[in-house]
Amino acid sequence: MTDEWTLKTKAMDIKTVNTDLSKETCPVDNEQSVKLEKTAIKIQSWWRGNMVRRTLLDAALGAWAIQCWWRSVQTKIVEQKRRLALKLYTCQEWAVVKVQAYVRMWQARRRFLQARQAACIIQTHWRWHASQSQGMIHSRYEVKASRLELDIEILVT
């Protein structure tokens, strides 16, 4: 019933109302025809308003769906950029930590070698002094970069 009514109201406009009224055999007074014309205009404007609102609603829903999709795509892109920046930052930090560790290791090794060389020199001087005061063992120590050369002479008196 509503489909029939909508088809009739779609097809009905001012011209068809005027021609239908003029074809009638029964004379209709002018006041009644104006009333029918105004009613037809109201029905047509109501129907067109509904159609426009429905079309606008469909367009708005479509735009909303596209906007939601676009925002999700942008969020994913931003998240990927953030993760890439974090990964790059982490790699740089690890590289800095490794360089610092190697420098500290080199410094500690250098201090150790200096301390070892100083200890060898002190021991050499001490042993030379001790042997001079006792007169029993004569030896000569020589410290080179990473090893110790030792010559010992034992004198028996």
TrEMBL record:
GO molecular function: calmodulin binding
A Pfam family hit: IQ
Stored InterPro entries: IQ_motif_EF-hand-BS, IQCF
Coiled-coil stretches noted in the UniProt entry, renumbered to this chain: none
Residues annotated as signal peptide: none
Full protein name: IQ motif containing F6
